[in-house]
Design a protein that fits this description.
The complex is a heterodimer of chains A (about 210) and B (about 80). With about 210 residues, chain A is an alpha/beta fold. Chain A is built from five helices and twelve strands. Helix content of chain A is about 20%, strand content about 30%. In chain A, strands 1-2-3-4-5-6 form a six-stranded mixed beta sheet. Chain A has a six-stranded mixed beta sheet with strand order 7-8-9-10-11-12, with no helix packed on it. Chain A is globular, with a radius of gyration of 16 Å. Chain B has one domain (about 1-70): Orthogonal Bundle (Non-ribosomal Peptide Synthetase Peptidyl Carrier Protein, Chain A), CATH 1.10.1200.10. In chain B, helix 1 packs across helix 2. The chains are: A alpha/beta (about 210), B mainly alpha (about 80). Chains A and B meet through loops of A and helix 2 of B.
């Protein structure tokens, strides 16, 4: 099976959302929808005759979740994230949105928490694997779909990972990066990060991020 | 209360002396990430919930302004 990955930058914060889909099949996956009205995502769905079946979140921060309510209201898709993420997206201080505009927003909680499904989800004929990666936040997960690793804010090219927000930890980040390195080095994995362009896993050096 | 606030600030940015009477924001002693940590710590320590509309740099710029915010939230000085 050949999957396609479309990166659609969010706004007003330039985080990344992604659509993962298979040519000729209708149900798709959305990762980190961070634009409130999801206009660009919905335009993409219409253009490619797609319907989102699942929303997957890498972590709880507002610039990665702002479109969750809109997508769920419009398409009734299932929201999947870690249990800590699910607890934090429903509180505007914990999802950080109140620090952005003083008002903030809350989303609905997850329909499925990754721990309850042993960090695996079947989609079409593919297995989606959720890899807990604390460091940027306690809720962090990287999401492996085929040869694509969606890293959220755990790994962003040429950027030190932010560890000073609540739940951040340098030692946990180092552990997470080492686990990822052991698992994915020389495996031709493409990193799809939470901000900026995609790049090969083997291009990274841990010290870039810490 | 003042000492508790100083302790919290010191924990967030141990490299700075928060007993100095300077503007913490203007002096770069607290950035926006630190304010997030500070609000979380103040909420937890004093069992309050600082309103979003009060999350303004000037409310975290000095010990007195932080104490003022705490008093506004019902914390006894």
């Amino acid at each position: 099976m050949s999957i396609s990955v479309e990166r659609i930058p969010n706004r007003p914060v330039d985080s990344n959302s992604f659509v993962v889909y298979e040519q000729g099949k209708n149900p798709c996956i959305v990762i980190d929808p961070g634009t409130e009205d999801c206009a660009e995502l919905i335009e993409f769905f219409e253009k490619h005759s797609l319907t989102p079946a699942f929303i997957l979140l890498t972590h709880e921060h507002f610039d990665h979740i702002w479109g969750v309510n809109k997508l769920k209201e419009t398409f009734g898709c299932k929201l999947v994230c870690s249990s800590v993420c699910s607890e934090r997206i429903v509180v505007r201080k914990k999802n950080m949105s109140v620090f952005y505009d003083q008002v903030g927003f809350e989303t609905v909680p997850a329909d499925i928490v990754t721990e309850d499904i042993q960090n695996q989800l079947e989609w079409n004929d593919l297995k989606i694997i959720f890899i807990p990666t604390k460091g940027h936040t306690k809720s962090g997960i990287c999401i492996l779909i085929d040869k694509n690793l969606f890293t959220g804010d755990t790994i962003i090219r040429n950027t030190k990972t932010v560890i000073k927000l609540p739940g951040g930890s340098k030692s946990e980040l180092l552990e997470s990066l080492e686990a990822l390195r052991l698992r994915f080095y020389q495996k031709e994995i493409m990193i799809q990060p939470g901000h900026g362009e995609s790049f090969w896993f083997d291009e990274i050096k841990d010290q870039e991020f810490v | 209360m003042k000492q508790k606030v100083i302790n919290i600030l010191q924990e967030i940015r141990p490299e700075f002396d928060f007993t100095r009477e300077v503007n913490f924001i203007d002096q770069g002693m607290l950035d926006s990430f630190d304010v997030v940590s500070l609000v979380s710590a103040l909420d937890e320590t004093f069992d309050i919930s600082i309103d979003g509309m009060d999350i303004l740099p000037e409310n975290f710029a000095t010990i007195d302004s932080i104490v003022g915010l705490l008093v506004k939230n019902g914390v006894q000085p």
